[in-house]
């Protein structure tokens, strides 16, 4: 199945589901090559505290590698995010989201039960080490400085902008 065919089918399904579930505004659906390490995401745009637009982005490389049935379950996962946002202003993977996702038939797991995750095979590029407690973690993408100022260590509370950043 081509990307255009999948996009048309998923857009029709999106309109049907949003009508049934009362999701307004109806999300726009796009396949984005910008996604590198995820199968899909929901983008939420706000203006003065109101949701003005929702966009479901799906990774075309994921469609190419795993086919329509897998991208469909990822699509349902993202629709569940849209439903939870519109109804409850819930944007994470909470219990409420998990129930909504399973009710829709979406996937809660990136690998969807399989071990084929070669599309996620990009190597770790950055390591962050807390100077206070020594906790460390690796990332594929570097944190921007505004994000580093916003986050804190979950163990000791040290701001991330004080951490040592190492390129791997």
TrEMBL record:
Alphabetized Pfam families for the sequence: SprT-like
Protein origin, superkingdom: Bacteria
InterPro entries assigned: SprT-like_domain
Record-annotated SprT-like domain positions: 4-163
GO BP annotation list: response to stress
Protein name: SprT-like domain-containing protein
